[in-house]
Amino acid sequence: MIRNTRMKRISFVSTVVVAGAMLLSTVPANAADPGVTATEIKLGITSPKTGTVALSYGKLPGAMKAYFDYINANGGVYGRKINLISRDDKYLPQQAATQTRNLVLSDKVFAIVGALGTATHTKAYVAAQLAKNNVPDLFVNTGFSGFDDKTKYPTTFLVLPSYAMEAKTIAKLIADTPTLKPMPSFLIAQDDEFGKDGVKGFALAGHKFTSAPTLYPQGSLTAALAESLLAGVNAAVPAAAKPVMVLMGTTDSTALILKAAEKLSLTTRFNWIAGSVGGDANTLLALGVKPATIDGAYAASFFPDAKDSTDEYVAQFMKINEKYNKGVTFDNVVLQGMNSAMLTVQALRAAGKNPTRAGLIKAIEDKGSTFASAGLAPLNYSATSRVGYNGYWFGQLNAKGELKPVGGKVTLYTTDSTSATAPVLSTYTRKPLPKNGIPTN
Amino acid sequence: MKNTSVRKRGLIFIAIGWALLLIGDRVDELALSQGALVATYALAIASIILLTGYSGQLSLGHSALMAVGAYAAALSTNNLGLSPAIALVVAAFVAGIFGLILGFGVARLSGPYLAGTTLALAVSLPTIANQFEILGGEQGVAFDIGLPPARFGEEFSQYKWFFWICALAALLMIWLISNVLASRYGRIFRALRDNPVAASLSGINVGRLKVVAFSLSAGVAGLAGGLLVMLISGVSPSAFPLSLSFSLLTGAVVTGVYNLKGVMLGGLILVAIPEIAESVVSRIGGSEGFTVALPGFLVSALLILAVVFTPNGPGHLLHKKKH
Fold first, then answer.
1. Are B159 and B33 within 8 A, CB to CB?
2. Is the interface score ipTM higher than 0.85?
3. Is the entire prediction scored with pTM above 0.90?
4. CATH class of A40-161+308-389
5. Does this entry carry the keyword Membrane (chain B) (predicted)?
6. What pLDDT digit, counting tens, does each position of B115-148 carry?
7. Less Cβ crowding at N or C end of chain A, within 10 Å?
8. What CATH number has the domain spanning B2-322?
């Protein structure tokens, strides 16, 4: 009886605590489009700031914030300062869902910008009800072509070319390069939409690998597994051949595989081809891959080389990074973050002096393809397309981590994610950098 | 007397349910969403208390058992066309069966060996999940329960729907568990925990009852897993990291691993700590490193304080004060 009375009290206390917490966190209802005041535009980003993936992409929100700080110091967007709220999702779906929901319901951001990851953001998009609340979901950092589905993700705009596009252009590189074409070829890729989109792209291009692609779970690739994969391929291929080894994975996974090759003394055994994500030389070197290992490796990109300070966009972003992102090394991730931030500023300006969420989405649909950007490929936004960049060029890394174009000149190919049509040579000319990197569209 | 206790317990839970229903109508969507998560975590913590606190078996891989339930729920709606409500029952049932099979395997293990086995299960989950095409690899499987029933009206939000489902499931299951623990089985479980040799000499089949406890705990964890992925509309291996197992175990220890009375508080702590940390950082400022480290620091500090000052939970502290 005593026990029951006690239990009753404890249950009552628990209820009061839960009720109290819920009531305390109650906030008044907001206007239809939150996040915009006379002086501020509040934006939100979820990305991994802790965990292994943060080693590769932890710089992204800081780079975006640095660019926004630069814009704020130069008058903001029609007088409003941009306030970027960054939340750590640890690259976990549950965390991404919770943090995106917090951005929308608690921080009351106007839009989400630059969210990163496929498995994380697909869950977060639904859990935070971005579609229902018409929250613009801008410049998502994933190449998952599924985000182009306007019925499922009506407020999302991609920025990266899809992994399928990447695979199609890699297949073209192999077919067009005499030293690669006759070699046995292999694919090691992540077992998520990254790898699956890639496999789909190779199938569309008609490229057949020597053995079935090896897909590994991103979160559980270990040094031992990487070594066993490489050792298996090494044993299966005659010593005279130099097989093509395509790596489609995040930079930390790519680094793990390259370090496994170092341990097995197989770095020169393969013709390495890394995708645009995994081929970020600066990050690979920072993760401990030896300069000699990446020397000669092929990598895809749709940006100028992040080390190329003669490029006007890279030079301007480097200056901003030096002043507003002190102590952070400029690399592909920083370039990508600042570029997405610049696109965001142009989108906000295109939405007018009194931006609404619907107006922002419409502005990107109408004018997004004309935005200035560092990308060497065109942007493809329209009323029917949510695709950002749609092309790649290939280069070879040197020991300094510079990406030098194959053939000495950047040759960009554009393509799509769904057809078997081969990538075509692009004639696109990039728009010049807005004066001092400050958009005035 | 026994029936009276069961009835009283039932009335208390009905009262709590009624209170939650009223609260659900008066708070905003953020609080509803957090409430759903609190209820889900409370249920998961209850499964750990049932296993560790009552039957004395330590699991470090409860997230894997939750994942089993989560996949079962998702697959039964996608492949068998079952309704979400039935799918959640299936989640508990399948995880319970899985726990039963696993329980038979680990029945002879105890202490660090059992902990190690369950830990290995949690660590190997992503690899196991990637072996079967049907589980959808890293991307996982969708688990979309759809919009709330139209009869609740247009104002009835998805978050409120989730809150209702999670709160109801948690209340029902915790009520069932509390009844089990107040019954003969509860006393047997405690006997297993306190002195297995004496329990065996008293005629209790220690191995079989340990398996029963493991299976029950797995079933409850499976239901919690189903609810968790319902909130994010899909299940994938990375939704159940090892850190989740440790967080739940922390929640159980902080609220008192030897009784069920603080489970809601445990759930609340797990949901509130990151929010408190973010709020503290935004008020006092600090570096990026400080921001990301603070939630872990707060949880660790809370765990140490709980172990030092209330090793049996706040409920036990109140009991001591009373006497």
1. yes
2. no
3. no
4. alpha beta
5. yes
6. 788 888 888 876 777 777 788 777 788 888 888 8
7. N
8. 1.10.3470
